[in-house]
């Protein structure tokens, strides 16, 4: 499974574009990337009447296309087969979904602005709408995948995440850990002795972890990291620990064990997507 075969990079002419183009270049250098589509949607409905009069003689689509082509060419050069696609669709998420289906895109790359200069609403809509993988990248200086974490809840859905980490380990010499966050359901806490059951719970989860990895038959070396959630929920704990250990790539499945519908995104994945995450987040989409 080559998740980086055909990549779509969503650009919006903000500062994060440079990070996304550099990341595309990194992927092209290290993986078997065939096509990269740099997509920008001109939001003409956001242009005021006054400004529209000022630019009426300017071919906005052509100007932006040339600007982005020059920027991409400067960073990418001749690596992979890439092109810049410009449109003025009223709905960005519909445009990206259309291009994704038309060009058989395997992964869509979005910029994570961590709540600054953008609400992330389009990104969240795309997370639910797209059938392909999503890579959510914050503004980072160093682009180098060295430490990979794969979050798992031991569900069948999470197994797909390990195919992505295996692909990365095949191409790069990286340290990889399978990560699971566990905690005692808070509504049981008043009725039991936490100090006694905590050790039993940890041993139980360790056994489940071992059984899961054994059945997975993972082809490369992978360590496991069992994290006690305690008062924090899984998403908060993953975020804290990933940043604490300076993880360079975090992989999660779009759905977990409790998902009732194929149309829903798992709660942990959704929370990670919405949080102030300083780590590139790769979301594997389950395709039925």
Automatic annotation (TrEMBL):
Residue ranges occupied by any UspA domain in the UniProt entry: 146-274
Pfam families: Usp
InterPro entries for the chain: Rossmann-like_a/b/a_fold, UspA
Similarity section: Belongs to the universal stress protein A family.
Name used for this protein in its record: Universal stress protein
């Amino acid at each position: 499974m080559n998740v980086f075969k055909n990549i779509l990079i969503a650009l919006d002419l903000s500062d994060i574009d440079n990070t996304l183009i550099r990341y595309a270049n990194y992927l092209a250098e290290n993986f078997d990337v065939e096509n990269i589509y740099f997509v920008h949607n001109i939001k003409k409905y956001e242009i005021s009447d006054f400004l529209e009069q000022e630019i009426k003689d300017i071919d906005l689509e052509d100007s932006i296309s040339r600007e982005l082509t020059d920027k991409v060419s400067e960073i990418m050069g001749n690596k992979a087969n890439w092109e810049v696609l410009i449109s003025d669709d009223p709905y960005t998420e519909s445009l990206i979904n259309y291009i994704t289906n038309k060009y058989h895109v395997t992964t869509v790359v979005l910029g994570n602005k961590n709540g600054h200069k953008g609400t992330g609403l389009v990104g969240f809509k795309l997370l639910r709408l797209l059938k392909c993988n999503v890579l959510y990248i914050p503004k980072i200086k160093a682009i180098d995948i060295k430490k990979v974490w794969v979050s798992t809840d031991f569900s069948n859905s999470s197994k797909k995440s390990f195919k992505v980490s295996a692909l990365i380990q095949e191409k790069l010499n990286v340290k990889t850990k399978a990560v699971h966050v566990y905690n005692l359901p808070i509504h049981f806490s008043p009725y039991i002795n936490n100090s006694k059951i905590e050790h039993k719970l940890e041993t139980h989860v360790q056994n489940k972890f071992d059984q899961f990895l054994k059945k997975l038959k993972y082809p490369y070396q992978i360590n496991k990291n069992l994290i006690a959630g305690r008062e924090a929920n899984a998403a908060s704990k993953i975020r804290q620990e990933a940043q604490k250990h300076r993880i360079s790539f975090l992989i999660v499945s779009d759905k977990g064990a409790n998902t009732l519908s194929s149309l829903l995104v798992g709660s942990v994945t959704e929370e990670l997507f919405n949080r102030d995450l300083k780590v590139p987040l790769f979301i594997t989409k389950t395709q039925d």
